[in-house]
Design brief:
- There is one protein chain.
- The protein has about 180 residues and is mainly α.
- About 50% of the residues lie in helices and about 10% in strands.
- It contains 7 helices and 4 strands.
- The strands form 2 sheets. A two-stranded antiparallel sheet has the order 1-2.
- Strand 3, helix 2 and strand 4 form a beta-alpha-beta unit.
- It is globular, with a radius of gyration of 17 Å.
- The chain starts with 12 loop residues before the first strand and ends with a helix.
- The model has no long low-confidence stretch (mean pLDDT about 90).
Length: about 180
Amino acid sequence: ALNQIVDEGGIFSWSAKWIDSDEVIYKDVKGKKSKEKELLKPIWKLMDEADIIIGQNSDSFDIKKLNAKFLEHKLGSPSFYKTIDTLKLAKKHFKFVSNKLEYMSKKFCKIKKLAHSKFPGFSLWDECEKGNLAAWKEMRLYNMADVQATEELFLELSEFDKTEVVQDALKAYKGRN
């Protein structure tokens, strides 16, 4: 029930990269929820500039969560972009034991999704919220590795998908090399 909601959560870190760049971008608020809008502005700008956004389970989670926060903070909608969700690619073309990024990156990629080391499971988010600098360091590494593993997984899975959006993203990647 609505009266049972103690804290609706928020976004206190994110990581992204352009497919034609090696640089991984990472931003966080170091536990200062009041800074959430400032954290959202650069990711909004990236999404506004993007033609295609690639992510793991991003259609069902990340993009919708970001959109809710953009609306809440009156940032508006980014310009039109297409999406490629590697979870959907995996389900569409393969029958893996698991479609989780952790499983697929361990099986097919050089860059692996990181397991939490000092702060397993939810404790990482909890410790970040408490201002634990070691947890924030782990969060940074965790987020950045997720982005790199997702990109590599996309490149591995994409040869099986002949849709225009996937082929356009591949051309952008190959254009950088």
